[in-house]
Amino acid sequence: MRILLAEDNNTSAQTILPVLVHAGLHVDVTDTGRGAIEMLRNYNYGLVIVELFLPDMDGYDFIASLRARKIQTPIVILSAIDKPHSKIKAFSIGADDYLTKPFDPEELVARVQAILRRSNGYSQPVTEVGNMALDLNQHTVSVAGVPVHLTGKEFAILELLVLRKGISLTKEALLNHLYGGHDEPDIKIIDVFVCKLRKKLQAAGAGNLISTIWGRGYVLNDSQPKKTVANRISPATHYQENRVPQLQAAGE
């Protein structure tokens, strides 16, 4: 899952960043509130972590500005102020959590993971789709109890499809989820990743969980869908899809 960290203290950022990355989170960093707002307006993030006092605005104004723009991204506030009124104010205007500095980075990771699960409708770290189990905390996948090895990009795609189960995701949304607007390769790379992901899951016995919505993107369902006009594969399309693995899958 891709998240945003808005922190102007370089020492603090360098302490937090590796712990988040080690937990399997993709993190973009900015040191201003306006920079964070602009990034949240243009890209899809699962969560934003914000220092309460940034150089250009305080966290309260940041929260109010986001919510006024109808941006509902979960917000975690970091602050050296451990006063009830500060926490109450943050929660009352739209913050989802508040951590007081100094804090244990591992606790931050646990809170972030819990908020990401809850914001996507999951109370437990392990979610099952058919006979496939995906652990959102450990970043592991198994089918009928047997581990399935996925690359980082493959897991990131499966993670988003699971969290948005039943909702079609465009290739642009998946590309943004993987790269966050930074050094993005050709959008055809998504077809490569999805094709390899499908083959690994099918080989493990999970069936065809990922359906193609032609002209729209991909969707993950509990079971293999019935053939309809929307997902019927023509011979020409089938030929093209079989050619996908021959493309260069850069960035894994």
Radius of gyration: 20 Å
Q: List SSEs in N-to-C order.
A: EHEHEHEHEHEEEEHHHEEH
Number of discrete helical segments: 9
Shape type = globular
Tally of strands: 11
SS strand fraction: 15-25%
Describe the protein's architecture and organization.
- It is a single chain.
- The protein has 252 residues and is an alpha/beta fold.
- It has two domains: 1-118, Rossmann fold; 124-218, Arc Repressor Mutant, subunit A.
- The protein contains nine helices and eleven strands.
- A five-stranded parallel beta sheet has the order 2-1-3-4-5, with helices on both faces. A four-stranded antiparallel beta sheet has the order 6-7-8-9, with helices on one face.
- The radius of gyration is 20 Å and the shape is globular.
- The two termini are 15 Å apart.
